[in-house]
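Q: What would this chain look like folded?
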Amino acid sequence: MAEPQHVPVLADRVTALLAPALGGPGAVLVDATLGRAGHARALLEACPSLLLIGVDADLAAIEAARELLAPYADRVTLVHARYDEIPAIVAGIPGPMQIMGLLFDLGVSSPQLDDPARGFAYAQDAPLDMRMDLTQDRTAADIVNGYPAAELARVLRDYGEERFARRIADAVVRERSRTPITSTLRLSAIVKDAIPAATRRTGGNPAKRTFQALRIEVNDELGTLRRALPAALDVLAVGGRVVVLAYHSLEDRIVKRELVRLSADQTPPRLPVPAGASTAQFRLLTRGAEHPDSEEVAGNPRAASARLRAAERIREAA
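A: My prediction, written as structure tokens:
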């Protein structure tokens, strides 16, 4: 029997925000990033009539969730897919469906980080992989050994916000010309040596930003989020709610921009009555991004960077 391997971030707050929309008969929640189903289990427990569609790009997560959600099996549909496929997933499930909840818990999951073989962690030696979906072809090793220096520097700068991106990229190109870089510890050492010694004394492991950037590039995380969020929000019924947990500013910026756009009244100021196509489709349920409190972070340090945003659909799209 699979056991829960991590504590879901802000579980009580996520439940409190979503549950008011999920109490009606036939209400459906799409958990776009199912992981080990921590949030899903809490919501299935809190909402006895809830139906769940659980989506994950990681087959290992789907199989673990199948066991973890066995007590609710008659209310659960699990799908191995990327979350930018949500409209097609919903359309492919027979029968009428009212999507009343959407949950996105972005980024890499704790089980993925904790499994050295997946290559996400810079502190353990493993093959340079970093694929969330092991059925896809491109790995971090392909990027590290194949991208030209300028393109590699762009990835590190744009996705890792790495100020020494060009120095690291040049060092990687120099080292790979001797022997291909295939392990996490070797890459971590190359990054450390490329960064000025004075800057290594603060800010944690100097490879952190490089590994984040490579992971985002391998999995097209920001592109997927840009495609997925508006498409998924489009299937949400009036009265339905969305909650998004982001873990770095690049993700959170995309989420904020989309939710603010959909919750703003775009009616030109001179019109006496709001134009239907321009009035807000959503209302924000959070003021800015919410963060875990110090007690939660003490018990679950990986929650420290979490940013939660939520909104409710108040009108159909014109």
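The radius of gyration is 21 Å.
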